[in-house]
Each structure stands twice: as structure tokens, then as C-alpha cells.
Amino acid sequence: MPKEKYDPPDPRRMYTIMSTEEAANGKKSYWPELEITGNVRSLSPSLWTLTHLTALHIADNCLSRIPPDIAKLHNLLYLDLSSNKIRSLPAELGNMVSLRELLLNNNQLRVLPFELGKLFQLQTLGLKGNPLAQEVMSLYQEHDGTRKLLNYLLDNLAGSIKCTPTEQPPSRSWIALQEPDQTRPSALLSVMCYNVLCDKYATRQLYGYCPSWALNWEYRKKSIMQEIMNCSADIISLQEVETEQYYQYFLPELKEQGYEGFFSPKSRARTMHESDRKHVDGCAVFYRTEKFSVVQKHTVEFNQLAMANSEGSEAMLNRVMTKDNIGVAVLLEVRKEMMEESSGKSLHGMEKQLLLVANAHMHWDPEYSDVKLVQTMMFLSEVKNIVDKATRSLKLSSVSGETNSIPLVLCADLNSLPDSGVVEYLSQGGVDCTHKDFKELRYLDSLTNFNCNGKNGNSTSNSRITHGFKLKSAYEDSLMPYTNYTFDFKGVIDYIFYSKPQLNVLGILGPLDSNWLHENSISGCPHPHIPSDHFSLFTQLELLLPSTLPQGQVNNQVNGIHLPGGRR
């Protein structure tokens, strides 16, 4: 059912007539409702230009048909067509998805267009006094009959669950951003980031515009896997992967294609019975075994970090610790064969080249911008620790590694827009402790624990929390207008970041054709052709090998490890 409360028009509503003096003084009229009466037999085309209308009363007339152009009144919440002589309804009526009340009582309707099922926000549907089929009226007269009838119509919109009502969307275009420099040895790798929409979240309550059969996991999972296979990325980062589906579907399917994977569920899984634990979602990273071998695997639990670093902050305990989001990180070694194949040169004698892949899913609620920002800081702090410890323990150099020593690919559903503190923190290297996204809550003492300068860093009220990485988004300059596309929200909340100077972006997979969405009146996803409410991100990166870094940085690099002071 619709989330927003709807109040129907008041039949006893009062109205006023503007005086000549008021009109002369420039007073503007506002009339969101229109009533047409008087045995009207046809409607003027000029009516469809009144797109500001929210209520249209055309009851008690002699109309036998309603023109398809009525769908142009896209702001209508209330439409009363009762007591006319209407024999059929235009399919376009189903595109008026703002409707909350549709009254069709006492007409001559024998059938209803299946498109009416698209009116997922409809709360009242009047059908009495029509010679409709018994099957339709029986369903309508049941408890919650309006909702059941709309679901029935939507589920049968295509005539068959094996045939969807619109053409397949056109392929997304590849956007080349730069060419690899063939004169320099480098390794090419591709990365995919995709929130696959966990089965338990794919409900008609949340996605009332999608047929129930198209929300069913058995239907969606095939399209999701097809999307993954079409990209055929070297590294695949997925969010909202259900535990059972990881082990029974994703891992077996992708193993057959030459991948291995790592998965961790949200923290709540630890306290659950096995029968419930299998339905908890989490984050997964897959990698091609012919190109990478795994060195380390890490799970980052944000609620545990919040508890350990609260420093007496009530906000940290009451707001951050109560959210069980997680992140994962996989330290990979790039196989020498891959580097030699990409560069076309023998790399005999070269030490191991590492790559850290991190994947996270931050809290969803827009009212918790502070939590998302703190979670992101905690994650980057842990990623830095992984880099530092790996540099030391694997003895890749004779000195302690720095933050940028191992190339980083960060994939995430940040649930944060490009103008958020989260994205500012990642792309600008840090954020002020007074940033508005903290909501003036007391986090400062605990935030200094996640500063790249450590706990001994500056903790004044004007301090800035930094992460030390040099990160850049693969999708910049509005190349993707939205990564999450639902009826209620459309925006960019998914990201692929990569670290400079070791990595460059060569190209990205562009957005879905907006004309296709518009022409097919697709108000939100999932959809029979789009299995998730998110669009996947896909990019090709160039990994510069140590001797190929820009002049001035070469002397401080040994096999991808940054050495301060030019020491060797």
C-alpha cells in the first residue's frame, strides 16, 4: 500500500470567486480541482493541458469513452468517472501512477485493462454497477479487494509470465575515457559493482509497481547472473547477497566461469539460528583465478568498531553501534602472466604486485547521514590498517608501508549522494569534523581514532578527519545520472573508487537509455527486464607497474610499494 496518507477531496469544500479588483492587482488564482457536469458527451482536448490538477470530477455525464490523453494529467490524485456510459478504458490510464482514488461506479465496463494494475498507489477503486466478469468482481469484493485486484491485473499485464510487456532495453554504451599507453608496461583489469537486491527486500510493499512474478528471486536471479556474465569483469563486488544464495547459487555459478569468492553476512547473522542466518544478506567479492591469487581476506564489522571506539560518545553507541552493516576486503596478488600478457613484455625478476579490493554497504536511512559518514571513516581506517600490516608482514619492502603503497579498488553502495559528506570524504581525502552530515552530534573524540594521523592527531573543534588515500571515482562528471532507480528515489548512491597514481580509468559502462525508460513509462525498478532497483557499475582500469609511474615518483616505488625518502 502507499506510504503517504491520502485525504480525498472534501465534497463540502468552500470556494471563493476572485474579484475584479483582486485580478487587477495581480492576484493569482489556484484551482487544483475541476468539476465538469451537465450531460457532457465529449471532453475538450484543452482539458489535458491542465496538468496542475490534482482532482477531476466528471461524474454524472454521458461520456462513452475516455481519451488516452487523460494520462497527461500526471498529477491527478483523484479521478471520478462514475455514472457515465463508459464501455472501455484506455490502457494509458495505467500510467497515472499518482492516483490514490479512481471511481468508475455505474458505467458499462465489461473488462478492465490490465494496465490498471500499474496504479500501485491507488487506495480506493470504485467498480460497483458495472457488468464486469464474475472473476473480477469476486476478487474485488474480497477483503483488501482493491489491492488484490490490482495485483492480479499487474501480474497478468503481459498475458503470460513468460512474455514481458515491453521490448528489452537497448544495450548500455561503452564510454571510452582514455587509451592505455602502449609504450608503458601495465596490467588491465575490469571491475563490476552491483547491488543485486536481496530477496527479502523485494516485496510488493516496497515495489508495488513491479509484478510479483518479476520480484520472485527464481526469476530475478537469472537476469542478475546474465548481467554479471555480460560484463565478465575480472573483479566483481556485490551487495545485498543473501547468505544461502551466495553458497548455493553465486559461488557455484561463478566458479564454473573461473572465479573464486569471499563473502561475509551482516553482523546480525552471528546471533541467529541457522534457519534464519541463511537469509541474512552481506557483501561478496569474486575474482578471476587466472589473473589473481588471494593473499588475505578481511571482514569489517562496523558495530564492533563503533563499540571499541566510542570514547564515551552516546551518538556512537546509540546511532552507529546499532547498525550492523559490514564491509569486506580481499588482498590479491596479480599473477605475473596477466601482467606480461597486458604489457607484452617479460617481467622476469619482478617482485609480487598486490591489489586490495574493498566492498561495503552502508546504512540506508537518509536521516542517518552521520552514521553513513562514520561507517565510511571506520572502513577506510581498517583498509589503511590492512595495507600497513600487509606491507610489513609480507616483507614487501624494508620499511613500513604508507597508505598508498598497495593499489586500492573500493566498491560500495554508500547510500549517499555525490554532494554528501561521505563522497566528499572519499574524493577529497578528508572532511571537517563540523560537517553538517554529522548533525552536530558529539563524535569528535571517537573520530580521531579513525584519522590517518592516528589517535595523537589534532583533535580541536576545527580538525579534519583524513584517510590518506588518493581516491578518484571511476564515474565522474555525471556520467551516470542514477544508479538507484525506484518510484520514490532516483539518484547516484553506488560507486567505484580507485587509488592514484597506480591506477587509471580507461572506460566505463554508460547508463541505461533514459528514452527507453520514458517511452515505456517505467517509473521504477525492479522491472521484468531489470532485476534490481540498482544499475550495475562496470569499469576498465589500467594498473601501472612500478617502473612506469610518473617521473618523480618512480624513485620512491619498488614493486608498487611506496618508500619514503627514496630508500631502497
TrEMBL record:
| Domain Endonuclease/exonuclease/phosphatase residues, every copy | 193-534
User: Which EC number applies?
Assistant: 3.1.13.4
Name the predominant localization. cytoplasm
Q: Supply the source organism's classification.
A: Eukaryota, Metazoa, Chordata, Craniata, Vertebrata
Q: What class of enzyme is it?
A: hydrolase
- Which species is the source of this protein? Oncorhynchus mykiss (Rainbow trout)
Q: Which Pfam families match?
A: Exo_endo_phos (PF03372), LRR_8 (PF13855)
Q: Which family does it belong to?
A: Belongs to the CCR4/nocturin family.
Q: What is this protein called?
A: poly(A)-specific ribonuclease
Q: Which reaction does it catalyse?
A: Exonucleolytic cleavage of poly(A) to 5'-AMP
Q: Does the keyword Iron-sulfur apply?
A: no
Q: Where in the cell is it found?
A: Cytoplasm; Nucleus
MF GO annotations: metal ion binding; poly(A)-specific ribonuclease activity
Q: Which cofactor does it need?
A: Mg(2+)
InterPro entries the record matches = CCR4/nocturin_mRNA_transcr, Endo/exonu/phosph_ase_sf, Endo/exonuclease/phosphatase, Leu-rich_rpt, Leu-rich_rpt_typical-subtyp, LRR_dom_sf
